[in-house]
């Protein structure tokens, strides 16, 4: 299932219309109206919207939004580490779009269907990776760079951390 077109309609624009749509969407995601979105609330809201998304994608997008907010001091509430507030919601949606594309590429490279990419799979998928706009001169060196834990296989978390810089840079 191609998820990228499904996620395209999420309101990530910085203009007034995008902000208005995000406010409405945030309210829909926040069933108890407390102004905080838990990971479970986000997951359930996406399902109810018909935007069922793989758990690793949601988790990475969610954690990235929380982390950036903490680093920039935008989310200073006691709930900040575990919840998304409206200030982080656009960032969450942007990251959801980015990680969705990365997930689709990751899965297309993972021909063993074990949620890991080994070096031969990586080498075979260089053309797909270069569609991200990043020319890979030395596949073995790039693989080693992405494989942060040096386990000999790339996990989605590592792939996402690496690929995030290349996906939709205009959205950030």
UniProtKB/TrEMBL annotation:
SUPFAM superfamilies: EF-hand
Domain of life, source organism: Eukaryota
Residue ranges occupied by any EF-hand domain in the UniProt entry: 17-52, 97-132, 134-169
Residues annotated as signal peptide: none
Higher taxonomy: Eukaryota, Sar, Stramenopiles, Ochrophyta, Bacillariophyta
Keywords, sorted A to Z: Calcium
Calcium listed as a keyword: yes
Coiled-coil positions: none
Homology family: Belongs to the calflagin family.
Protein name: EF-hand domain-containing protein
GO molecular function terms listed in the Swiss-Prot or TrEMBL record: calcium ion binding
């Amino acid at each position: 299932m191609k998820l990228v077109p499904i996620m395209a309609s999420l309101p990530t624009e910085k203009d007034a219309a995008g902000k208005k749509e995000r406010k409405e969407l945030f309210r829909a995601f926040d069933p108890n109206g407390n102004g905080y979105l838990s990971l479970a609330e986000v997951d359930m809201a996406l399902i109810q919207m018909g935007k069922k998304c793989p758990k690793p994608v949601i988790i990475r997008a969610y954690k990235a939004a929380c982390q950036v907010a903490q680093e920039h001091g935008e989310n200073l509430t006691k709930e900040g580490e575990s919840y998304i507030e409206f200030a982080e919601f656009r960032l969450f949606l942007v990251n959801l779009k980015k990680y969705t594309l990365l997930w689709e590429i990751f899965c297309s490279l993972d021909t063993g269907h074990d949620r890991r990419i080994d070096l031969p799979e990586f080498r075979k998928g260089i053309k797909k990776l270069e569609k991200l706009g990043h020319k890979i001169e030395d596949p073995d060196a790039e693989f080693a760079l992405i494989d942060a834990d040096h386990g000999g296989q790339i996990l989605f978390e590592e792939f996402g951390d690496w690929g995030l810089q290349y996906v939709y840079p205009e959205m950030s």
